[in-house]
Amino acid sequence: MHYFKFDIATWIQSTRHLTPEEEGVYLRLVNHYYDTEKPLPVEIQPVLKRLQLRGHLDLVNEILTDFFVLTEKGWSHNKCNELLKEYHKGTKKNKLNGQKGGRPSKTKASSVTQKEPSGLITETQTEPKHNPNYELVTKNEELITKDIKASKIPPCPHDEIIDLYHKILPELQSVKMQLWTGTKRDKDLRDRWRQSTDFQDLRFWEWYFLQVKKSRFHMGENERGWKADLAWLIKKENFTKQVEAAIQ
Questions:
Q1: What is the pLDDT of residue 150?
Q2: By the 8 A CB rule, do 13 and 181 touch?
Q3: Which of 151, 182, 207 is the last residue of a domain?
Q4: Domain identity same for 126 and 208
Q5: Structural domain for 35, as ranges
Q6: What is the end-to-end Cα distance of the chain in Å, rounded?
Q7: Per the structure, how many domains does the chain have?
Q8: Do both 101 and 169 map to the same domain?
Q9: Are residues 26 and 51 in the same domain?
Q10: Which of 16, 20, 47, 167 shows its CA 20 to 30 Å from the CA of 10?
Q11: d(Cα 231, Cα 189) in Å, to the nearest integer?
Q12: Same domain (yes/no): 19, 136
């Protein structure tokens, strides 16, 4: 597959939580998926060498976990699979039409604009003359839209979690919300929320902050007088250690 429709608005919506570097890694992996027309291999080092991503292994692993599913055939991507299926269906149809002497002529093309429940605007249009890829392009846009709607992970309630942090841990450094959106802390909190269904509950975050409050070290009773803050508490390594220590 050497061509697919790139819907800029939809891409931005599905990758807005990524840094520019992470987005670049994701785009290279998706392009390779379409180029080879198969899942990314489990032994991914040869792919990383080909894509010049060997120095970005941590980012690659995060992207694979975020957007792909590990199967017996490798790292699979549902949207890519659906797009490839539609592509091959379209090329097969074009081949049959060619054997019959070409596609039936169309007298005019009409379009109907409709609003999806998600708020995205899609356009369904009849197939104009001399454009064998048009049907595929339209379906690609619909598939991308459906992929966004299919996500079952609830959005991270940043405000509510930060309010709990302030309520339970007023002794620690407060968070200025106007400086939160679009930062590394913003992404870290979203990643922790998405890390497990157990963490997608405000009751868990209340419990987590209460565990921190019980720790004299994290509350400043140490030689340096250092105190934890929310940015430190939601970094992956620190977060994992605190949760594991609390449930042992």
A1: 41
A2: no
A3: 151
A4: no
A5: 1-151
A6: 50
A7: 2
A8: no
A9: yes
A10: 47
A11: 8
A12: yes
Structure tokens at 59: 């980012």
Residues ≥6 apart with Cβ < 8 Å to 7: 140, 141, 144
CA distance 172 to 50: 46
- Reduced to 3 states (helix: H, G, I; strand: E, B; else coil), residue 40 is strand
**Same domain as 86, residue 177:** no
Same domain, 8 and 67: yes
Neighbours of 156 (CB within 10 A): 19
**pTM value surpassing 0.85:** no
Pair (102, 164) in one structural domain: no
Based on the domain organization, do 31 and 95 belong to the same domain? yes
Q: For every one of its 248 residues, what pLDDT tens digit does the chain have, with 9 covering 90 and above?
A: 556 666 677 778 778 888 888 888 898 998 888 888 889 998 888 988 888 888 888 888 888 988 888 888 889 888 888 878 877 776 555 555 555 555 555 544 444 444 444 444 444 444 444 444 433 344 444 444 444 444 578 899 999 999 999 999 999 999 888 788 888 889 999 999 998 888 999 999 999 999 999 999 999 988 888 999 999 999 999 999 888 887 76
Residue 121's DSSP bridge partners are: 115
Alpha helices in 45-179 (DSSP H): 45-50, 57-67, 78-99, 134-149, 158-168
Identify the CA nearest to 66 among candidates 5, 32, 15: 15
Question: What local confidence, expressed as pLDDT, does residue 97 receive?
Answer: 55
Give the separation between CA 46 and CA 156, rounded to whole angstroms.
35
Q: Which two tokens stand for residue 240?
A: 């994992």
Residues 61, 64: Cα–Cα separation, whole Å: 5
